[in-house]
Amino acid sequence: MSVGCAAEGSRTVGDDRLIGEGEGIGVGVSDEPAGDQQARRIRVLLVDDHPLFRAGVRQRLCEHDPDLEVVGEAGSSREAQEMVARLSPDVVLMDITMGDENGIEATRAIKRMAPAVAVIILSVYDAVQWIEAAVEAGAAGYLLKTVQGPDLAAAVRSAHEGDTVLSPEVARRVFGRLLPRLHSGDKPATWQRLSERESEVMALVARGDANKEIARSLGLSVRTVEGHLGVSSPSSRWVPAPRRWSSP
Predict the structure, then answer these.
(1) Are residues 94 and 143 in the same domain?
(2) How far apart are CA 70 and CA 27, in angstroms?
(3) How far apart are the C-alpha atoms of 98 and 216, rounded to whole Å?
(4) Which end of the chain has fewer CB atoms at under 10 Å, N or C?
């Protein structure tokens, strides 16, 4: 069963959707055949301990990309892991702070269980420690809850395609952490020295280009771009959020 824009257990007042707290929250059945939906839609699982926030995220995804199908909602790490096993989502949107276990540990458990699932952290926290912990746990991205609906939908699609997405604020913090290491000392170590091509790639990454866009701009293959970024598999590709997220 899939969670639609007008989910069972919800009522609509004008343009706002209020979610009840009973059993079956947000579960509805689409009129389209399941096989047809799954063939063209990206399956999304929402994990947050606030039902109203989940309802808002679901509505934004439905509004901005009809090919994103919310297949379930979980309010805890345990529920999330059970739903990943049962529903096989493509992308999980994961909060950090929940009652039973934080989203970092939940992400780590989900990646052990289902390595192909892309987990995007969706949080109010922008501390570098949380960001690094999320990446180490295998997250495909880290977005702040201030993200706009169109950007969130675009991020889900990008993560499903193998890119890693970061909110602009998060990207700035990551680069702020990296730059002192790259510029420390009069004679940088071998790992710190970038070739001209690597510098070009990193400049485009900082601008917000995805790997495919970088490859087209520089006349390179995507695999070569990944090599310059120091990654070895599509699931490890590192790109910031879509370019339109960047500050003017």
Answers:
(1) yes
(2) 9
(3) 41
(4) C
